[in-house]
Design goal:
Helix content is 33%, strand content 20%. It is α/β, with parallel strands linked by helices. It folds into 3 domains: 276 residues, no CATH class; 76 residues, Immunoglobulin-like, CATH 2.60.40.2700; 218 residues, no CATH class. The protein has a 4-stranded antiparallel sheet with strand order 12-11-14-15, with no helix packed on it. Strands 16-27-25-26 form a 4-stranded parallel sheet. Strands 18-17-19-20 form a 4-stranded parallel sheet, sandwiched between helices. The chain is elongated, with a radius of gyration of 41 Å.
Amino acid sequence: MRASRLFATFAAVAALVVGILVPVSGASASVASGLAGRDIKATLVGFSAGNIISDAVFTNKSTMTEAQIQTFFNSKVPKCLGGSDKYGPIVCLKDYKATSVNRPADAYCSGYTGATNESAARIIYRVAQSCNINPQVLIVMLQKEQGLVTHTWPSAWRYSKALGQGCPDGGVACDPNYVGFFHQIYGAARQMQIYMEGKWFTWYAPGKTWNILWHPPVEVSPGVWKDVCGSSPVYVANKATAALYYYTPYQPNAAALRAGYGEGDSCSAYGNRNFYNYFTDWFGPTLTSTFSDARVVVNGYVTPGQVITATGVFTPAATTTTYQWYRDGQAIAGATQRGYSVTAADAGHTLEAKATAKRLGYADVTAVSAKYVPKAITVDRIAGESRELTAVEASRAAWPSGTRTVYIAGSLGFADPLSATAAAGRADASLLLTPPTALPDAVGDELTRLAPTRVVLVGGTGVISDEVLKQVKTRVPAAQVVRVSGPDRYATSRAIVEQSGASERLILATGEDYPDALSAGAAGSASRTPLLLVNGTASAVDAATLATIRKISAKTITVVGGTGVMSEGIVAQLTSMGFVVKRLSGSDRYSTNAAVNAAYFPSTALKALLAAGGGFPDALSASVLAGRWGVPLLLTEQSCVVPAAADFIRQRGTSSVVIVGGAGVLSSDGVEQLRRCG
């Protein structure tokens, strides 16, 4: 059944000409409807009788949310006149509510679950979603049929046949199945899908030329109707335009097009013209162009710990572009930014990016990047339930068959064990940690397993008590047990350096804090270079420090840390004394760590260690591992891998990463996945 209300519309236009006020209705619609407070178009530039609206625009159900529809209605009628007439209370569209009913799903709509007191906005939104029709199309049809969008005093009868669905021309009563606002909206939206299907309606089928009338037939004598205005051929370009002609089978003539919203001549029909007018004025273009170029370019290194960036390239440029990354064809949850942090979980899988472009007047387009397979990086973890037990686990990993020398340092402070890390590396020795007053059973068991011939206790009795010394001797009675200490951390550091033997190279780091010294200790351990702690804030090193430097015959000195932690005065002093001095530093502990690793591992590093830069205990254990395995120690944050560390892994071709410390120190979902920070 065609839903046009053309005859009634023509009557309405004629009545306006002679000055009689009649209800605004009809698919070819009201010349006057909705004109208050708006400019009247002079012409309809862009209107095409054969391509009134594109299929993409007509069926884009995502153009408006329910809230946006309601806001739109509110904006069109700031104040409703209200009151009542013989049909009942006067309610404007923005305030209108109706009870909907259940509708089964079929080939045209996905069905509807009825509800009481649904707003007009909600009904339109839900129907649009069910029947895959642009809600803007339904809104425009409400306006061109009954003027409901802008009407300030609509009678109830307008809602009963709001879209003219099931209401034939000629004043015949509407089909009872379509009476009521909900039935009109759902019925019309479903009917549009039936029209576009092209199975039952074929006389305006797209892709063909059809003679379309300019005006409804005119009653030339009682009961005799005649086409007095004629027709012209129209090439119907798409399904949506065909649907509009099934609904309103007339095209506007030149006079109607020249008149904008106004009155043309006696052969003018206005329904499809007004549809175009309202749609373009309220919502923008009805025709959808296509992007001539649509592609996605991915830049970056497709390696765990790296951020790769997708860039959508569209011509013309998109107004908005949204992104989604995929792994093996499945959308990655939360990966909706241009940049994507490649993780260890991505290794061996296919990554690709999709970019969706939007631009007014253009069909949305989604472009897909090439596929990329990240290289695999093995990630392992060495950890214990405490700092002492983590040191035990590191010792087991480094010396599965035991070692001749073991260093034992206090677990509560950083200074003494830091000096010991480099010394342990030089001696190919394990480093175990202990509280001051008692040797933990697990540490004692590891000491027994290692079966050393020599044990070095680092620090005085305030750090490692004589009771611990006794327990050590009990565990390894055949080993030589010695204590290396001084009255303060600097004296202890000097004693350790001197005890470890001569070296042309020496590393200096501040003993006032641990971050830079962690990097220095690991580098010293891996390169077999002693680490000497000094007061970095002083303007020069003291005589005792100079004596140690000379005693070990050092010639080249590497200072670790910026001028804020290792003064320029120290560098100047040592340089003036003939030493070759080099400073390694960065803007923070992580960039300093990167500078140290770049200097000591300038080419490849197939294996690397990761430890927390926010604390010292686990990094101490990692430093000894670095010495044993000859690998770099990378410091990072708790929940992710800092860019400097991630870039080092990529640049050095690292294929194996060992995390030192538990998940509470370095997270399993961030660091273990090599997820890049930022």
